[in-house]
């Protein structure tokens, strides 16, 4: 149950409303010998039962709204997008495999006697494969192996095909710009952004739940207001008939009949307004839960009862719970952390670039040897080398022909306006986020205090409104007695009946205000208030 339901509510409603209807029924009391009308409780029950609609519980509406409300689904989409962004940023530090293959063919005319052919034909295939990754501190690692296979028709080429192989392990480490926080600032921002989206998602669902609960109790009060208005209208019709009889008997004047007719017209309008407002409340609930009432019914009908006296807690506890659990505050805190991460990264990127790099590797050579015969000589020369690609790879692996490099790269932008400007902008965004958090905290504190006062004064408000209804009932009773004794007018009876209707509506609104305050505190404290109150 999403409200703290008092089992005494129905009895209290019937007792108070019953007295109200008893007074209005007295306005149309039948003459002696006529059949007595139904009692006020049965009359109210009959009107309520006659209202069309699909009976629904608050829990069923909350469950439907949690998955179907547009605000909740939009928050789900935002959270899914933030989670995908986080996954993408994490992927920036995943290892990456790379490779390439290039085939080239060329026919090149030769003018040199040592070209080995009038037209040198070369067919080349170049293959490269490797892996690389970037560490969260900005370190770039790379390992690669490449080989070039060359087939030629040159008579002086000792190897055809020839395999030239090269392998290397390289590292590049930023020391200033791009180091540490700057390297993973986008990831930090994405992490806090995803956490903020999750908090906003929770906030959207709690806001929807609070709105559904508030509309549910408004619908509850609207039904009873409509029932009371309907009963007063029906009693007013009987009162008008009695006034007309008294006028024909010469006991009252035409002005008395006119007053009763005016009041009846007002009550007819009140019934129409209450019925229209009830439809609007039901339509709003239908929009929140994503479906209309079943079986072609016009509206929903609440079956739960509002809390008469919810649990009140000290305002200090509620404020502490709101500061710790309010999802809107948590989302703003995550956005502030994201701005801070962006500012730290920008501060590092505003510095000069100083990168050190180095690498180790080796070369390899293999292929299919051919006999070489030089012009004008009968000597044959043959290059003694291992055949195939494998021996070249072994030479690289064993570093038979080693390679290495090391160095430093320095870049100092003159003026430094780009980096310093970005850093200053990031610091301003952090300050702005701080101000947003403070503003939201103040607003939430104001709302918590207001709703806590609503709860504290709810019982007193209900007591006063109930007393107002009872006093209005007595006024109507006295007014009817005076009217029948000729000491009052129909206008005065009409005015007293209107006061009674207003008092009954104030009583309904007092019930709704208490229920709305409990729902609002649940939303403001991130669900803490309901859990704490249910433990009591």
List the helices and strands and how they pair.
Blueprint: H1 9-26, H2 40-50, E1 54-56, H3 58-68, H4 70-91, E2 96-109, E3 119-134, E4 140-152, E5 159-174, H5 185-248, H6 254-289, E6 300-302, H7 315-325, H8 327-349, E7 353-369, E8 371-373, E9 380-382, H9 390-397, E10 401-411, H10 417-484, H11 490-524, H12 528-535
Parallel strand pairs: 1-6
Antiparallel strand pairs: 2-3, 3-4, 4-5, 5-7, 7-10, 8-9
Helix pairs in contact: 1-2, 1-5, 1-10, 2-5, 3-5, 4-5, 5-6, 5-8, 5-11, 6-11, 7-10, 8-10, 10-11
Summarize the entry for a quick read.
By secondary structure, the chain is of the alpha+beta class.
Description:
Helices cover 59% and strands 18% of the residues. It is built from twelve helices and ten strands. It has a six-stranded antiparallel β-sheet. A two-stranded parallel ribbon has the order 1-6. The chain has two domains: 9-28 and 37-84 and 188-337 and 432-535, Up-down Bundle (Outer membrane efflux proteins (OEP)), CATH 1.20.1600; 97-134 and 139-177 and 353-411. By secondary structure, it is α+β, with helices and mostly antiparallel strands. Helix 10 (417-484) runs antiparallel to helix 11 (490-524). The two termini are 15 Å apart. Mean pLDDT is 84; it is low at 1-41. It has helices at residues 9-26, 40-50, 58-68, 70-91, 185-248, 254-289, 315-325, 327-349, 390-397, 417-484, 490-524, 528-535, and strands at residues 54-56, 96-109, 119-134, 140-152, 159-174, 300-302, 353-369, 371-373, 380-382, 401-411. The longest helix is centred in the C-terminal third of the chain and has 68 residues, at 417-484.
